[in-house]
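Reminder to self: keep the SMILES exactly as supplied, no canonicalising. Ligand is pyridoxal-5'-phosphate.
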Amino acid sequence: MASPAPSSAQNPLTQLTLDELRQRSSVKWRLHTPDVLPLWVAEMDVPLAPPVADALRRAVDLGDTGYPHGTAYAEALGDFAARRWGWHDFRVEHTTVVPDVMMGVVEVLRLVTDPGDAVVVCSPVYPPFYAFVSHAGRQVIEAPLGPDLRMDPAALDEAFRRARTHGRRPAFLLCNPHNPTGVVHRRDELETVAELAGRHGLRVISDEIHAPLVLPGTHFTPYLTVAGAENAFALVSASKAWNLAGLKAALAVAGPRAAADLGRMPEEVSHGPSHLGIIAHTAAFHAGESWLDLLLDGLDSNRALLATLLAEHLPSVTHHRPEGTYLAWLDCTGLGIATEQPVGGPGMVSDVAGPAKVFLDHARVALSSGHVFGTGGAGFVRLNFATSPEILTDAVTRMGRAVDASLSAG
Ligand SMILES: Cc1ncc(COP(=O)(O)O)c(C=O)c1O
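Structure tokens returned for the bound complex:
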């Protein structure tokens, strides 16, 4: 049966049935067989926000499917950033459109580093940070997160020092908020990053794709608003918060002392994003805020539900309550399942080993396997809770049953 037409006053996470979701052809729904509940890749189980759907429909009706033009995306982001985060000195002229966040990261790396230079990342982190940096011919150096899953200044200091010895123009690729832990870096933590980066001569590139997804109780700090970040870059996009990964577009934003570097970005990079992507992202930042607030309320209650479900069904699995994103980073080391260490660096996003393999094989729940997130990831799984409370409940219940069965069998 079809679910009711989406109402603007409803939780976006409760509007689609499992049958409707299974009709989707994106990787989340097609990588596994239909008996698997997919709680892995960062796609959300929501319909499009009505203002985004309206903007796309209008473009299709007009046949407005040519090349993009103008700065509407940056203007919409600038207004949103001022309203939401108090980022008042956002300058549209210090931005450029890029095909997506990861391509934007690579293009900014090309501006501020040379082949063979080091790029520091805080592990465990979003696996493409390794893949894209290596593919761009740069070398990854890890600065592992501390035991509280927050950035560790001593580890950063050491990694920045090593990065300097590896090449002329090193960089730090910051994940703000952090995927997979859901940590939202505080202003004082970001000031420490800026101070260390300044001292060691690293350029900072801040991936802020999850910025609109900061959950109630926490505040997002744009890196470029931090003292000492004037020569840094941020990559921002509507793609995670409004579920627009299939509508490619993102913005690279330069701090005032990085604007000249951004000016060297080859014009052809701005030919990468799609016109429909820019239309959708612009509508999201311009008119998608009340939908976003409903989503954040839904994610907040799923975050609480997940904690309750884990306590009931998987009491030996622990996690830090995520402050942002819709990702929960579950420590499964207490389950006693053998974990696989990455060989020669983290693997593909869809590689599955250790606890994630047990949950896939025995619970038919697909999660992201911790080992692909780099050092500190083995023995963990990342769970995407941007789904309905029913699917979340079914998934964690099945995971608990699978563990109980394997314990009684073993
Ligand atoms: C931290 C982070 N950066 C980048 C991306 C991918 O963004 P894009 O598709 O715009 O490259 C994701 C997707 O989940 C992400 O979590």
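Points to follow up:
The two ends are 42 Å apart (CA to CA).
The longest strand covers residues 171-175.
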